[in-house]
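input
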Amino acid sequence: MNIEWPRGKRFAICLTHDVDRVKKTWWQSLYYFVKTRKLYHLKTMFQKRNNPYWNFERIMAIEDKYGVRSTFFFLNENKKLEILRPSTYKLSLGRYDINSPEIVEIIKELDKNGWEIGVHGSYDSYRNKELLTKEKKTLEKIVGHKVIGIRQHYLNLELPTTWKLQKAVGFKYDASFGYRRDVGFRDGKLLPFKPFGDDDFLVIPTTIMDSALFYKYPNLKDAWRKVLNILDRAEKNGALVTVLWHQRVFNEKEFPGWSKIYEKIIAEGMRRRAWFATCGEIYEACLK
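output
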């Protein structure tokens, strides 16, 4: 697929956020205290306000500063806690109710002010048409209009089955194609692509995910050098760089430097004359 980015821009950057958890729970506070021995984590057990995982207003302020918008993928996780199966703990403990008043309020505020809202498909939905349909309809009821995009939780994909199911229930694009433990252009995909040929379903690859970047490059200088290498390649080839930063990592006390790298990506992209767009805008640009 050959793409000419709008306004003569040399390449494109798509900013995204997966909303997995919105509040730090007592068990997370205790876990991180035992792991790090930092008293800060114990104190967060008793915080009634300023929960360290919320951070929506901080993201909005950063993006407002640069005049850009992003896509937020909201999770509607249905996994039940099973005491005798530790594998269910991470998928069930600390999840939020997408229909709770505070979540509905922030979704509507983001949507009203130009941010795109998409489905963050629950852990098992990548192979379950019923779940995909339910999660899409639930989010559409909240925003009051159609939702066209999805990214699967943990980037779960069973190819091509997942894309066929997503398309069948009415999604127009998927943003799950990327690395869990690495960053860069998976399978050399520099641009969005149509997995089924000449139809209107699009795959928007994920290029840089926060956890993968800092897992492989824990030193911030090394991480930034890797980001610059990716931007160099994108600028040279007119590519798309899709950035995934979870909203909880904009807490500097627990993820020092992570939000600063995010902001540096925006500033560097602007310096290089990148076109910034939501996933929905990328979709529209690719189908023209």
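quick obs: The chain has eleven helices and nine strands.
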